[in-house]
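in:
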């Protein structure tokens, strides 16, 4: 279901927790200890520094997985509209405990205008159900300008509901309403949750305080396990990227 990995600072183990399901809609996953599976992602696995939290004394702690989001684009995978915003680079919490992508309201409004999403007092964040069949992709670039680009297909941005309403007015008049997987988050810390993570192969390195991202490869049954070289070693088969500009 979700592809995530952990490297933990204990004497014996380096733990890489990965969802290894074959399709984007699969409901189960597996756990892989001690390595990554290069058969389960495509393109380069790129490392991003985790942003520390600084307390009142100036001490830095790494108690949550916050990294920079460099850009968002909406298109068909070949060309698209890059969202221009002063919010970038945007610190985002990578959180499998959240079902949605939650963005600052002004940034959400820009993305929403490209995907047809909106906010309704009665129904929350909604999107036309037929956007799922549009062939569009929302691309999130993690870290910097050379960071990994994760393409989220339109059908992962649309969440069906039972007994859906119909848009009564506006550009989507007559269309069926679904829940939008990309939502506004006010002034809270931005989040990339399950809507994003189902399309991302992610490794969490708690020793070096880095995350690595690549595009998940679906519909594969083979494995190619590459172990970590040693305690504190870099994530295998991964590339460093420049800091966000």
């Amino acid at each position: 279901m979700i592809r995530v990995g952990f490297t933990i600072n204990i004497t014996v183990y380096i733990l890489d927790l990965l969802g290894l399901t074959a399709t984007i809609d699969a409901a189960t996953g597996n756990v892989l200890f001690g390595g990554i599976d290069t058969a389960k992602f495509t393109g380069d696995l790129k490392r991003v520094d985790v942003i520390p939290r600084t307390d009142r004394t100036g001490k830095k702690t790494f108690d949550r997985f916050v990294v920079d989001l460099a850009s968002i684009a909406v298109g068909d995978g070949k060309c698209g509209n890059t969202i221009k915003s002063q919010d970038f680079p945007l610190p985002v919490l990578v959180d499998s405990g959240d079902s949605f992508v939650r963005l600052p309201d002004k940034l959400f409004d820009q993305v929403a205008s490209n995907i047809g999403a909106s906010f309704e007092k009665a129904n929350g964040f909604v999107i036309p159900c037929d956007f799922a069949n549009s062939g569009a992709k929302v691309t999130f670039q993690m870290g910097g300008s050379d960071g990994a680009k994760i393409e989220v297909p339109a059908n992962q941005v649309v969440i069906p509901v039972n007994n859906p309403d119909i848009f009564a007015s506006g550009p989507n008049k007559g269309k069926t309403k679904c829940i939008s997987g990309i939502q506004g988050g006010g002034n809270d810390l931005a989040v990339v949750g399950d809507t994003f993570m189902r399309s991302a192969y992610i490794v969490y390195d708690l020793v070096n305080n880095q995350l690595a991202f690549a595009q998940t490869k679906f519909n594969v049954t083979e494995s190619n396990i590459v172990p970590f070289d040693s305690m504190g070693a870099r994530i295998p088969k991964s590339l460093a990227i420049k800091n966000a500009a």
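note: The chain has a mean pLDDT of 84.
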